[in-house]
TrEMBL record, chain A:
<dbReference type="Pfam" id="PF00528">
    <property type="entry name" value="BPD_transp_1"/>
</dbReference>
<comment type="similarity">
    <text>Belongs to the binding-protein-dependent transport system permease family.</text>
</comment>
<dbReference type="GO" id="GO:0055085">
    <property type="term" value="P:transmembrane transport"/>
</dbReference>
<feature type="transmembrane region" description="Helical">
    <location>
        <begin position="143"/>
        <end position="163"/>
    </location>
</feature>
<feature type="domain" description="ABC transmembrane type-1">
    <location>
        <begin position="106"/>
        <end position="311"/>
    </location>
</feature>
<feature type="transmembrane region" description="Helical">
    <location>
        <begin position="46"/>
        <end position="71"/>
    </location>
</feature>
<dbReference type="InterPro" id="IPR035906">
    <property type="entry name" value="MetI-like_sf"/>
</dbReference>
<keyword id="KW-0813">Transport</keyword>
<dbReference type="GO" id="GO:0005886">
    <property type="term" value="C:plasma membrane"/>
</dbReference>
TrEMBL record, chain B:
<dbReference type="GO" id="GO:0055052">
    <property type="term" value="C:ATP-binding cassette (ABC) transporter complex, substrate-binding subunit-containing"/>
</dbReference>
<dbReference type="GO" id="GO:0140359">
    <property type="term" value="F:ABC-type transporter activity"/>
</dbReference>
<dbReference type="InterPro" id="IPR040582">
    <property type="entry name" value="OB_MalK-like"/>
</dbReference>
<keyword id="KW-1278">Translocase</keyword>
<dbReference type="GO" id="GO:0008643">
    <property type="term" value="P:carbohydrate transport"/>
</dbReference>
<keyword id="KW-0813">Transport</keyword>
<keyword id="KW-0472">Membrane</keyword>
<dbReference type="InterPro" id="IPR003439">
    <property type="entry name" value="ABC_transporter-like_ATP-bd"/>
</dbReference>
<dbReference type="InterPro" id="IPR015855">
    <property type="entry name" value="ABC_transpr_MalK-like"/>
</dbReference>
């Protein structure tokens, strides 16, 4: 190329002034604290007043139960032996964290979480692209895809249970000689299958919102730049969709880690298929051991909080409602 | 680099809508062609078909002599610049510009050298490590241009690349685009709805309406010799004045007086199926204050008197708006042009005559003024077909031509 066209000097100057104009605004943000005017004060007061009802409800339904279960977890408190209730510090945590049942359940939960979320991401992406691209019968396709998500989990779980029960179920007779829900590996596979079947549409829905964020022009530009369909997907769509994908993964991971109903119906935790939620339920509600049960609940809470923290802080997932434009 | 040939190219959609109809166009190697027209005229669809982003329903498209109808965009070796710039938000300026080269599997050193050179040309060097989000509109636009030129493609396709810039920057970027195209000598097809861009940028302009090409030619030719009412009304700012004209005894009766007709036009109007009513078109600059016209010139035109509504002094000349009585010119084309200008429901604009008089004219607002207009420069249009009747072998000859 032997070219040396240069935009005119004024062109650059125009852009400079444009940039300068925006800088002081960013700087001025929070530095100086001028005394608030009456108007500002009134506005702030109104702000607090408007937030108050929601804040109160949040305290009542989340903060109080969480703090109460932390309090319970620090006590020896078994409803079968109410006389022995006493404050024992972190002893319950030692008990739980050195217990093999807890770690087995933790492993099962982690396995279910990783496998289901990974498969849901892949399937959900495919489904999202299909729903996004469908031109004919769009409403029908989307409705059909969302049906599994619309069915109550317990109801769906029961239908899977019957389907996999030899004698009554069509799936058991088709795919297996024995009773798949009585063996650990096949039980886990069926639990994961039921989870994936149920929540893939949810994943697809979240990803479809992300797909809508990819400007059509960007894909056209990639086409003329010489990208194949796969390159367009990996180099253009995925990076642009990254915030949406991370939010979808975060939601699904948190959800998956608390898996309960499918296991409860399909195996009731038999053959070491309990998740941590099942274990906590068994101790807390069935075993009436409020101390140990609460300890497990708190541990689940901590794990979920760590997952959310990792997503938001390390992967840069935009916390819902925040402006993510600065992160890019 | 290559020539682009559109041979009866059409685009129709499954629901029966025809977006583009039988477009014939030969774009020479290195030529800068502008597609212009109101929104929905099919100009962008035509561009997308050249790019391969839309399928061609019928007809043939050849780039460099080769039929490319069924080739994917990536196999056509063309680069496109979009109105939205379409920069990849996750990549830096350098990565954006390198993207097509990386896809073409060039080695790192070549890529870097090419990107650096293109960045130098467009003065993007200090911005190479920034993300698009941290660039101004003009800078993004230049990055988009940079991404197109690094590849040295057969052709540039530009889809309203300057429309998102503010007015001042747009004028500056126009010269950048023009210079760049001349220096690179790459065949360029440029879509715009802005007739100023169309007039100033291109070697040739293609005016489209309703999916069909209305006229193709150099900007001045379109301005001087519009083939039909639509072209006449679309090109020019302020646009051509249109008046109702009734054919009477070998002459024309108009709100500006009776216009005599030359033999050629009269012969045409004597045909049995000839229209009895015409639309007279005359551009603002073909009016003059009657006081300032010398006798020799005066004989080539007509004079009329009308009250001046508004006088806009531009320094070099004066735009004077007159109210003239008489029937309003009406034709489908005119309605469409008014709709495109956003004035369809604004009846107040009707009946007004826009004239461009010399700055020396002493005209003041409210004053009734004697105004001369050039008969050699008027156009007569058939309201039903929009055809320019004064056009003879592609040249407009005015009303008096023999």
């Amino acid at each position: 190329m032997s070219i040396n066209a240069t935009p005119t000097g004024t062109d650059i100057a125009v852009e400079k002034t444009e940039r300068q104009a925006t800088v002081p605004v960013q700087r001025g943000g929070r530095r100086r604290k001028a005394p608030l005017s009456e108007n500002k004060k009134a506005e702030r007061r109104l702000g607090w007043l408007l937030c108050a009802p929601a804040a109160l409800v949040m305290v009542a339904v989340t903060a109080y139960p969480i703090l109460y279960s932390v309090w319970l977890s620090l006590q020896r408190y078994d409803l079968r032996f109410p006389d022995q209730r006493e404050f024992i510090g972190l002893e319950n945590y030692v008990t739980v964290l050195t217990n093999e049942f807890w770690w087995t359940a933790f492993g099962v939960t982690a396995l279910i979480t990783v496998v289901t979320v990974a498969v849901e991401l892949v399937l959900g992406m495919g489904l999202a692209i299909i729903m996004h691209r469908t031109l004919v019968g769009r409403g029908l396709v989307r409705t059909a895809a969302l049906i599994p998500y619309g069915i109550v989990t317990v109801v769906a779980a029961f239908s899977w249970r019957y389907a996999w029960t030899p004698g009554t179920g069509y799936l058991a007779d088709l795919f297996s000689d024995g009773a798949p829900l009585t063996e650990r590996a096949s039980s886990l596979a069926i639990i994961m299958f039921a989870e994936i079947w149920k929540t893939t549409p949810f994943m697809a829905l979240l990803l479809m919102a992300g797909l809508a964020l990819v400007p059509e022009d960007l894909l056209k530009a990639a086409s003329t730049d010489g990208a194949t369909a796969w390159q367009k997907f990996t180099k253009v769509m995925l990076p642009v969709m990254k915030p949406a994908i991370l939010v979808a993964l975060l939601f699904r991971t948190l959800d998956a880690f608390r898996v309960f109903d499918n296991i409860f119906v399909l195996t009731a935790g038999g053959n070491e298929t309990s998740s941590v939620s099942m274990l906590a339920y068994n101790n807390l509600i069935r075993g009436l051991n409020l101390g140990i049960g609460s300890t497990m609940s708190v541990l689940i809470f901590i794990t979920v909080a760590i997952i959310a923290f990792v997503f938001v802080k390390l992967f840069g997932t935009a916390a819902p409602g925040s402006d993510d434009s600065e992160r890019r | 680099m290559a020539d682009i040939v559109l041979d009866k190219v059409s685009k129709s959609f499954p629901d029966g809508t025809v977006a583009v109809q039988d477009v014939d166009l030969e774009i020479a190697d290195g030529e800068f062609v502008i597609l212009v027209g109101p929104s929905g005229c099919g100009k962008s669809t035509t561009l997308n078909m050249i790019a391969g982003l839309e399928d061609i329903s019928s007809g043939e498209l050849r780039i460099g002599g080769q039929r490319v109808n069924d080739k994917a965009p990536r196999d056509r070796d063309i680069a496109m610049v979009f109105q939205s710039y379409a920069l990849y938000p996750n990549m830096t300026v350098r990565e954006n510009m390198a993207f097509p080269l990386r896809l073409a599997k060039l080695d790192k050193e070549t890529i870097n050298a090419k990107v650096d050179e293109a960045a130098k040309v467009l003065e993007l060097t200090p911005l190479l490590d920034r993300k698009p989000a941290n660039l101004s509109g003009g800078q993004r636009q230049r990055v988009a241009m940079g991404r197109a030129i690094v590849r040295q493609p057969k052709a540039f396709l530009m889809d309203e690349p300057l429309s998102n810039l503010d007015a001042k920057l747009r004028v500056q970027m126009r010269t950048v685009v023009s210079r760049l195209q001349k220096q690179l000598g790459t065949t360029t097809v440029y879509v715009t709805h802005d007739q100023t861009e169309a007039m100033t940028l291109g070697d040739r302009v293609v005016i489209m309406r309703g999916g069909a090409v209305q006229q193709v030619g150099p900007p001045q030719e379109l301005y001087d010799h519009p083939r039909n009412l639509f072209v006449a009304g679309f090109i020019g700012s302020p646009s051509m004045n249109f008046l109702h004209a009734a054919v009477q005894d070998g002459g024309l009766h108009t709100a500006l007086g009776d216009v005599p007709l030359g033999d050629r036009v009269r012969r045409e109007l004597e045909a049995a199926d000839a229209p009895r009513e015409l639309i007279l078109g005359i551009r603002p600059e073909h009016f003059e204050d009657a006081e300032l016209v010398d006798d020799d010139t005066r004989r080539r035109g007509l004079e009329f008197e009308a009250p001046a509504d508004i006088v806009e002094s531009m320094g070099s000349d004066k735009y004077v708006y007159f109210t003239v009585e008489g029937e309003k010119a009406s034709a489908a084309e005119l309605e469409e042009l008014a709709a495109d200008a956003g004035a369809a429901d604004f009846a107040g604009a009707g009946g007004n005559l826009v004239t461009r008089l010399s700055a020396e004219s002493p005209v003041t607002e409210g004053q009734t003024r004697r105004v001369w207009f050039n008969l050699e420069k008027i156009h007569l249009f058939d309201p039903s077909t929009g055809r320019n009747l004064t056009l003879h072998e592609g040249r407009a000859a005015g009303a008096l031509a023999d």
